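[SOLVED] Need 3D model of a three-part complex

Original post:
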Amino acid sequence: MKLNRRSFLQSTAGAAAASTLSFPAWAEDPIGVASVHDLSGGLDIYGKPMVDALTLAVEEANAAGGLLGRQIKLINYDTQSNMQLYTQFAQQAALKDKVAVVHGGITSASREVIRPVLDRFKTLYFYNTQYEGGVCDRNQFDTGVTPAQTVEKLVPYAMKKWGKKVYVVAADYNYGQITSQWVKKYVLENGGEVPSIDFFPLDVTNFGPTISKIQAAKPDFVWSALVGGAHISFYRQWAAAGMRKSIPMASTTFAVGNEHIVLSPDECNGMLICYNYFQDLKNPTNAAFVSSFQKRFGADYPNITELAMGTYQGFRLWAEAVKKASSVDRLKVIEALETGISIDAPSGKVTIDPPTHHCVLDVHIAEVNNKKLNVLEDFPQQKPADTAAVCNLIKNPNDNQQYVIKI
Amino acid sequence: MNDRALNVIGLALVGVVGAAFLILTPRFAELDAVLELTVFMIMAILALSLALVWGYGGILCFGQSAFFGLGAYTYAIAMFNIGESTGPLLLAIGLPAAFAALLGYFMFYGRISDVYLGVITLTVTLILFNSVNSTAGPEFHIGVARLGGFNGIPGIPPLNIPGNKAAPVDLEGMFYLATASLLATYFGLRWLLASRFGRIIVGIRENERRAELLGYDPRVYKLATFTVGGALAGFAGCLFANWGAFVSPTIFGLAQSAQIIIWVIVGGRGTLIGPIVGCIGIQWLTTALGANQPSGSDWMTNLMANAPFILGIILVAFVLLVPRGLVPTLGDIGHWLLRLRARPAAPSLKPKQAEEG
Amino acid sequence: MDLVVLVAIQVLYAIASLALISVGLAIIFGMMRVINLAHGEFLMLGGYAAIVATSNGMSIWLAMLVVAPIVVGIIGVIVERTIIRFLYGRMIDTMLATWGLSLFLVGLTTAMFGNTTVGISAPLGSFQIGAYRTSVYTLFVIAVATGVLAGIYAVMRWTRLGLLARGTMQNANMAAALGVNPPRVYAITFGVGAALSGLAGAVLAPVSGVFPTIGVAYVAKSFITVIGGGAAILSGTASASVLFGTINQIATFATTPVFGEVALLAAAIVLIRLLPQGITGRFFRRGL
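Solution:
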């Protein structure tokens, strides 16, 4: 990309602005933080809790006196489940609002839209969703869990409990495809078999034929990597066919969209899931967090989701790095994050893994029981081993791509 | 003042305003505004393609997004395989045009008309959506380009100066290209519609049977119109893939197809400037509604900030209050004002004279 | 053998659900030439009406079969009186207006119910067919669809309302000249179409779930079914549902849901190419 007059002016102006930030005259300006999430359209089921968590994080920071003596201003964009708006709002956040950091993106598709825009316009980017792993970009930090952190734990746990024959149903996109390959790998490593992996586009609601196919295959349990509102009907139809009691289910996507609340206990009790965060985690930090969250958004708030916590932790990690760097300058903050900054979060200790820009964090296996998620077992400090196999940003800081990890 | 003079004045006005916009915008606007305007210009070309096919050709095409999406995907796939943009650009126009010709042959020579055309074109774009959406697996690739399924194709390389791979078009260049293309499309269509061909397709739209009895084969003319519309939509798709460096299956979806129709209805069918205005207006509104959202507020505030909700109210109010579309209604008001001024000056105007213009 | 029975039930279910989601649209489009793009949202509202009623302690059957159609029927009449009646004879404008209405309804429902709504699960349990189990509710959906189609036939064939409706449909001016009040017939028709959509949405809610944006999943499919069926409302919807439902479900069984969907769409294209006026343009012409 040729540097033209305007982008040159922009970047030098940005650098000039950054270098003058420490002057007292500038100290009163608020620090801009952009949120780019879907608040309407089909994906708002994920986006709303994320923005709520980010709002709380910003308000907490402001109540504690802000960062570097400046208040933080949250600029909130609704991308309306529309990819074109992801590009437009990422451009606006970087060029017009000149924010210090962008938190946003839900699907991997939206991340891959935002990422090049923010790379080009030199704006720090946090992607806070669990995803398939493999992104390697010095400008980006990923606070969500990847398959090696959760699937690796849940597969042997479920196999020990239920048996060795695993039927996989997965959403037909990047995340579902890759996650189901990880599932297969761990099942085979643990001496099991995978008779079939079936993929479903995100708008499929008719699972009758699939349920019959699963019945014919007689697996010991079903692994679900289904995603989104339409796919909830799988669990419904599964239960309606009387299958829930005869063939159990495990998942690393269930409950992210509050499926356990939408469905009745009869339709999903006993399902095993594995995440970084559950609202019912027993530790003092989480107790304080949940109480202030419910104070802010109401005691009847359905459930603080994994993605909401990812976003909250993403903001906290960034804020910690800003304090350490004493600056909101992009490179200084990246360097501070790359020292392996860590926070004591509601989910436990969360640390940035410098080579991958992903997180080392606790994961927990839980069981769905009457609209609650009961934690059964904890696995402290899991490393992002999948991304680490392909990505080392300390050795290759100029690396910039999403790797497809060989499984 | 007669209609022909008005016509010339109108054309000149569009030319001057367009040229001024083209030259002045990058000098005075901020870069983010330039980038946003670029995508509006690209979408306006797409709106023009339907303005021709539906507004003038009378072909209710509910699947213009099929050609738009094909253009974008063709460009992306060809670009990854070829690397120099001249071929991909031509393919991104040619392939949708060929597809439109094939589909048009299938429909018009089957004597399908009216709302049935709408359903077939809608169905075609949904088939494309469903098919492309299920290509997430690594086994789906064309040459070195993976189709990517739901996630789409990111990181599409930009156009370059023809023949010179090392000279990609930069962001401002993209604005110039999109705006100049829009102007060229507008004037090209004006020319086309003023030609014999244009008069015949409008004649067919008004009364197909009569045109047929006069010796014109409506099927050939409809096919030609449809193909030109497909080529234009494909070209717009190619520019769109350039602008965002990204394409995904939602480009074929119902929301995208409906949006193009809405631009044309809002702006006014049977005009060219109308769909451009409608497109830019709706796009601007959608963007403005999505920016500066309140966070963590009560449900009423959230409702008032809900972009689809507000857009929905505006569309309903629009149909009821401005039924003919923006530009024709403004035109009516303009004519009415002109007549109001003309009346006292020429009170003895005879009907015969009035018809001469 | 058990597989054959199971597939047969699934195919019948696919036909039934297609007929259910299309019949309300068929009435509104067939009688009034209004392209109702808010049709999917009418179905969605039916689902919500049933959910709200059951969560307030009402029996699920009453909620689905009585409350949902009444609520959505009333909404339909309001929509007709405030918007649609200004747009008769302007098919394209009804498209824009109902698209706007659909966005409006999605926004409103999201704000009112949030996007995490507790759904209703399918009652009636399941039964065994050889090595397979399937839900009794599947049979219930088939029964409801049959009942709805039979009911429409009876009303159209044997009641005064049906006669007036058929007359107005064939020639509105002539009907008006003979003393029928077309605006009133239109309002009732729109209300009935909406009510049937509400019923369908409620009956399918325990199977597909309910969320504000679910309408898009329905609208294109039902529109294609209605047009494929052609001018006759009842026989058109029924025959197109049989054709498309069978193709869709058998293709899904044989391959994948995507291929099933594509097969349905491709069948629709071929059908309209062969029969440019829909199925009832050629067959069952004397049907209702």
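Edit: The mean pLDDT of chain C is 85.
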